Amino acid sequence: MKILYLDTSSKYLSLAVAQDNKVLSRTHRQLDRRHSAQLACLIDKMLKRAKVSLKEIDGFCVSKGPGSFTGLRIGITTIKGLAYVLQKPVVAVPSLDILAQNARAVINRRLSLPLQVCPIVDARQNKVYACLYQARPVKKGFSNGAGNGKVIRKSGYLLLPIAELLKKLKGEVLFLGDAISVYGEEIRKAKGIKAVFAGEKFWYPRASQAVPLALERFRTGKVDDTDSLVPLYLYPKTCQVKKA
């Protein structure tokens, strides 16, 4: 199955073209004021690099947020337009789920499994977007690409002050996301938490990391209704941790 992936939830524009589990081409570049005008050209370049025509794409995957309001609108509108014209299915994946997949590239022998994973994205107004995950070992006889644990969501998608989030955590936690630059010191001082911080290159969602998430959705038929697809903003709802 050939899929075009797009993430515009952060300050980066991330694109990927994949055939099943194999990524054929990808790009991850910082957005600027011209990104909406550049997007069509970048998609065309990515398809040519992958040697895949737009008509050969079997489905689309787009990040639905939470994240940049403007970026999400542009990304989702673009994918909806392509899906409508080509009459192909769409899967919208929360950006926090994609970001959490970066944990698989960070985990090494110094971090034992299972491990708590917590992506945190700066939501302004002294709040963060966050979600709680657990990285688990791969079962014997199964491959997980990078060779690290599968990342499983354990909470709802949250919008809350960092202090409230830290009260919900204890033990060793791997943090990823741009809110580390804002709240890193507060996290380090939090009682009962052994914080591990991912490097800055792992702070942002990458479209290529959405491949296993989207494939599972397509294979199980859990596609989104293109007409009603809208970004996941979280504002102004009050979000509480709840069992996934």
The quaternary organization reads as single chain
The H/E string reads: EEEHEHEHHEEEEEHEHEH
State Rg.
18 Å
Number of domains: 2
Unreliable segments of 5+ consecutive residues:
141-147, 237-241
- Our count of helices gives 7
Q: By CATH's scheme, which homologous superfamily of the largest domain applies?
A: ATPase, nucleotide binding domain
Quick one: how many beta strands?
Answer: 12
For the largest beta-sheet, the strand count, sense and barrel status come to: 7 strands, mixed
Mean pLDDT: 90
Query: Which percent bin holds the helix content?
Result: 25-40%
Q: What portion of residues belong to β-strands?
A: 25-35%
CATH first level of the largest domain: Alpha Beta
Q: Which CATH-level-2 architecture of the largest domain? A: 2-Layer Sandwich
CATH topology name of the largest domain, in short, is Nucleotidyltransferase, domain 5
Structural class: alpha/beta
Shape: globular
Distance between the termini: 28 Å
